[in-house]
Amino acid sequence: MKTEACLFAGVAVFFLLTDAVYMWFAREPAGGAALTVCFLMASVIAFFCAVNHRRKGGRPEDRRDGRIHERGGALDFFPPHSGYPPLTALGAALLVLGIVYGLWLFIMGAAVTVAGILGMVFQFVNADD
User: Fold this and answer.
1) Are 53 and 3 a contacting pair, CB within 8 Å?
2) C or N terminus of the chain, fewer CB within 10 Å?
3) Into how many domains does the chain fold?
């Protein structure tokens, strides 16, 4: 993850410099806002990769002498199936329809969306840990 963190940090620096130059010459807010969002997104990914590298340590892919067999075995936990993604999609659809038809539908959509997101986040949390 160290290589990915450095790569996305470089992308973030590129967008930051491009944003500064663009704002200086163009003086137009829409492009500056878009470049700022690109900088922030690349920074979040770089931060995530750096934290994962610090927390989990180096991977065989990060070392020059890493071997293929070191990466064998179970990689991670992948959930089998869940009903929460369709619930979240339904909530998002109600949110969008609520913008058109009224606040009451928007509030219902927000509640369903939050329930779906919380369900996805906490579905496989083991209470014993």
Assistant:
1) no
2) C
3) 2
Burial of 8 (0-12, 13-18, 19+ CB in 10 A): buried
Encoded tokens for 119: 């369900």
**Average pLDDT, 10 consecutive residues per value, the chain (129 residues):** 88 95 89 93 93 81 77 73 92 94 94 94 71
Residue 88 pLDDT: 95
Count the alpha carbons within 13 Å of 32 in the hemisphere toward its beta carbon: 10
- Is 28 within a domain? yes
In a domain, 127, yes or no: no
Pair of tokens at residue 124: 């496989």
